[in-house]
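Instructor's aside before we start: the two examples that follow are unrelated to each other. I chose them only because their records fit on one page, so don't look for a connection. First example below.
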Amino acid sequence: MNKSVTQSDITLLNTLATCANMSADEVFKDFKLMADKKILENHKYEIYYSESEKSWRTYLPDDTKPNNRRPVKRKSKENLEKEIVRFYIEKQKNENRENITLETLYAEWLLYKRDYTSVKAKTIQEYVSEWNRFFKDTALSQMKIGDIKPITLIRFFREVTKERKYTHKRISNARSVLNGIMSYAIEEEILSHNPVSDVNFKQFTYKPVEIQTDNVFSHEDTQKLLNYLKCIIEPYSLAIQLSFYLFIRIGETKAIRWEDIDYSKRTVYLHRQVTCERTLNDDLSFSKREVKVVNQMKGNTSHGFRKQFLTDEALKILQKAKELNPNGIYVFEPDGEIMTTDSFNRRLKKYCKEAGVPYHSSHKIRFYNASTAFDGNNLTTLSYLMGHSETATTLHYLRNVNKRDNDMLAFQKLGISS
């Protein structure tokens, strides 16, 4: 079917096809014949046969030529008519593309990202969230793409950031969506230059980010929680315990299979994850959540695939899991099903309350592990174990888990004379 047909056109064609007991392609073919006939009827230049040139001739509009027209000829009338139809369809398409708004192109870009790129469903959800937060129903969204200049964007983001409501990261996410749409406009030959690239985002004011040192499990609370969980033999308890002994993401924990464990080398190979996704529909709504196991790691896959060493404590946890689920495929299968992150966190919150320790989400377990293992010299090793492609990402995970007063330690030598 013709790619220039819109989604609403396809929906209409399918409805008509059902009513007429025909295929959508048959209906489309009939509509195309009618449209082609209408184009030829509206063509203002004569179509005639030239005996001297032995070809069929006519003119097509062209503002760059004398009399604003250019001659065109073909050996057969059929081919000439096809060229006429092609010209006017392309002309109409170009005129429509020139007038396309940011909002319309955004919708088109989303479907393009879904169908022709490897972007994950979760990322598309994030695109939609950022669009709704910053651009939906704004004057910018209704502007023609060609009318959006760097100064337009500077004024837009200056207004958005003037009250310091958003962090630099949040605005960067909004910028990424806008940049993606504009890059797509270049690919579609609607634009020749991306105006986002001409905007210096350092000029805007952002919400300060408070450095969090305590928003993570402490060493004392971790020991208290693990001691409480030792006597609770069920999948969630065991999964929570194992997470404290590995540099692992929650999606990776849920995806561990027994075949991934090498007892002789005391390692577990992390090479898949469980995701919970909602797929973008053609009408830009989202499907119901689907739990999927994918052989694709978060972030840079070349760094995501990695092996982890199993301590004595980790091996004991796996032994209990095996006794609990001897015939399972996955290590942790509550009620024979794959865990979800929500259910994992609900159970973690329940156990934290029962153990009398502050609750932090499963993601904060990674913060605790990275902070506990960091000795000041092993950042590169930690980055590998965490599955990070850059050490800067790992630095974000380092927290003061032992609650030491580092500020006071820094002041102790001040004023001491030699």
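Example two begins here.
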Amino acid sequence: MKESILDVLLYLFEHYFTEDVPPPGDREQLANGPLLDELTQAGFSPAEIHKAFDWLGALAEQRPAPGDPRAGGPTRIFFGPELDKLDVECRGFLMFLEQHGILDPDQRELVLDRAMALDQDELDLEDLKWVVLMVLFNQPGSEAAYAWMETQMYLDEPEPVH
């Protein structure tokens, strides 16, 4: 089985974060304790597990400072590796989320950073939605955006925001 960081993250998200069951202990306990054993038994390699923990650690460290999000800022221009990894549909979805207030510019940049940190050459829209969901889950004050995004995960077409 060729698993990726995203596969490990989705497993953690589905088994711990969405069930309000805190993963055991701090980063060191996560990387070497029963959770590592559980993930290994689930079929993930230790290398991918550690990369996923690093990904989560970087997400936690990059929370935007509290305050008013930048509104009406410049248009985001994608370049080089971002264009290679995120197709037009993904980039359009990020613009949609920002234009409708689901993501602010800082959160958009965090989503892009975390998407680019995944060890995949390309992300499809479904993968990007999971990254957005994990970022919003980690952002204090984003409960409404998280709830809206969670409903979008199970729809074929995004629902318009009013």
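The chain has two domains: 1-61, 68-162.
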